[in-house]
Design brief:
Dynein_heavy_tail, elongated, 7 helices, mainly alpha, 169 residues
């Protein structure tokens, strides 16, 4: 029982740390007002990396051994652990899926940033079709908040490109 108690303490520390990571991921991001859409892709790539590392740790033999000992001891901490394990998996899947979908927009980021206002407009219909495809098919990215954030960043990039064009002319 002494060993079980020590292991439960360790798992409770892990639970607290994992909850903190999950909570931070759900908090509103503070971003500059003029940030472009490539920042959205970078954000999700960072999240994907973080959650994949966390999943690797959760699946490590050390963690599995501790969990199996606590299962044998019928520990009550395992209910919380399993719930968090599931939440981490969901967050990792969401980040991976969002990166995959946002990469389909990546080909537009260069022309959006470097084009003149006239040539930029040639890319807008394809860009909007791709955004529409993401909205219609992504299981995670099809919320009003996510789409608003993405469209705001696309608009910011278009405005910045136009400002640059006007200052150079």
């Amino acid at each position: 029982t002494e060993v079980t108690e020590k292991l439960e303490e360790v798992v409770m520390i892990w639970i607290k740390q994992i909850r903190q990571v999950l909570v931070e991921g759900e908090q509103m991001r503070r971003e500059a007002d003029d940030i472009g859409p490539s920042a959205e892709l970078e954000h999700w790539k960072t999240r994907m990396s973080s959650f994949n590392s966390l999943l690797d740790e959760i699946k490590s033999s050390r963690v599995k051994k501790i969990i199996s000992i606590l299962q044998a001891a019928r520990s009550k901490t395992l209910k919380q652990w399993k719930e968090l394990d599931g939440n981490v998996t969901i967050a990792a899947n969401e980040a991976k899926d969002n990166v995959r979908y946002l990469y389909t927009l990546d080909k537009f980021f260069g022309p959006l940033a470097k084009a003149s206002p006239v040539t930029m407009m040639e890319h807008v219909p394809s860009l909007m079709n791709t955004v529409c495809m993401i909205y219609c098919t992504s299981p995670y990215y099809n919320t009003s908040e996510r789409m608003t954030s993405l469209l705001l960043k696309i608009t910011n990039q278009m405005i910045n490109t136009c400002k640059t064009y006007l200052c150079e002319g």
